[in-house]
């Protein structure tokens, strides 16, 4: 039973446009959410996180939005760049120390020229 | 600074053989995690350690899987005997709590069991 779901396996966006990656979760205990980016043949790398006490967190071109009532979070990348082409995983945690992350299955983002 | 180091990067073995994956975490990190990535299930947490002590191994699929952390700089994940359905990429990650929840992943060990 997938507690964290990324229903879009892939997304293609033009360079300069906004990329929106979505993630849904089912476990109400989750109170911390993260996004990771993964290039081929590399391990995932941390991108941005958000606590459930917030509804938005921004870091440069990356913004994560959290809608607790809908159990939904999204990652916005503006503007999208070719180097953003990767697989993006959302993850959720309830331990308070990110020691038991539950990951989604990932969304492959391709940014085209 | 060296990141998380995993070996081997690739392993091809035959069903029934023992497989040992190795991990050296980042110095100073007190958490170590073993994850498995498959197409169907994404990244799954197998087991994690805190200060070399196994805390939660509920993700370990079967008794065929075992993990150890004899000291702060080394961990192993062993599969004995291996089966074709164990074929996956196994990631080791380490962290210390800084408020962001950032885990530092190794490059992974791709296991193929024939």
Description:
The complex is a heterodimer of chains A (113) and B (114). Chain A is an all-beta fold. Chain A contains no helices and eleven strands. Chain A has strands at 4-5, 10-14, 19-25, 32-38, 45-51, 56-59, 62-67, 72-77, 86-93, 102-103, 107-112. In chain A, the strands form two sheets. In chain A, strands 2, 4, 5, 9, 10 and 11 form a six-stranded mixed β-sheet that branches. A five-stranded antiparallel β-sheet of chain A has the order 1-3-8-7-6, with no helix packed on it. Chain A starts with a strand and ends with a strand. With 114 residues, chain B is mostly beta strands. Helix content of chain B is 0%, strand content 54%. In chain B, a hairpin with a 3-residue loop joins strand 4 and strand 5 (42-50). The chains are: A mainly beta (113), B mainly beta (114). The interface between A and B is medium-sized, with 22 and 28 residues.
Q: Span from first to last CA of chain A?
A: 38 Å
Relative helix content of chain A:
under 10%
Low-confidence stretches of chain B: none
Uncertain segments of chain A: none
Oligomeric nature of the chains:
heterodimer
Largest interface here, residues on each chain?
A-B, 22 and 28 residues
Percent in helix of chain B: under 10%
Quick synopsis:
The complex is a heterodimer of chains A (113) and B (114). Chain A is mainly β and 113 residues long.
């Amino acid at each position: 039973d997938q507690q964290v779901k990324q229903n879009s396996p892939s997304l293609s966006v033009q360079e300069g446009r906004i990329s929106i990656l979505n993630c849904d979760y089912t476990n109400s205990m989750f109170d911390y959410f993260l996004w990771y980016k993964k290039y081929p043949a590399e391990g995932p790398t941390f991108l941005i996180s958000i606590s459930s006490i917030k509804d938005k967190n921004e870091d440069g071109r990356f913004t994560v939005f959290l809608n607790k009532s809908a159990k939904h979070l999204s990652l916005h990348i503006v503007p999208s760049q070719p180097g953003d082409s990767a697989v993006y995983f959302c993850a959720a945690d309830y331990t308070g120390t990110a020691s038991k992350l539950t990951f989604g299955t990932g969304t492959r983002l391709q940014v085209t020229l | 600074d060296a990141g998380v180091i995993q070996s081997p990067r690739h392993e091809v073995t035959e069903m029934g053989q023992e497989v040992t994956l190795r991990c050296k975490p980042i110095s100073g990190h007190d958490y170590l995690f073993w994850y498995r990535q498959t197409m169907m299930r994404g990244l799954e947490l197998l087991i994690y350690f805190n200060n070399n002590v196994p805390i939660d191994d509920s993700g370990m699929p079967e008794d065929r899987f075992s993990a150890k952390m004899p000291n702060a700089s080394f961990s192993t994940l062993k599969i004995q005997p291996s089966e074709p359905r164990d074929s996956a990429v196994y990631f080791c990650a380490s962290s210390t709590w800084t408020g962001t929840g950032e885990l530092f992943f190794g490059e992974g060990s791709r296991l193929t069991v024939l």
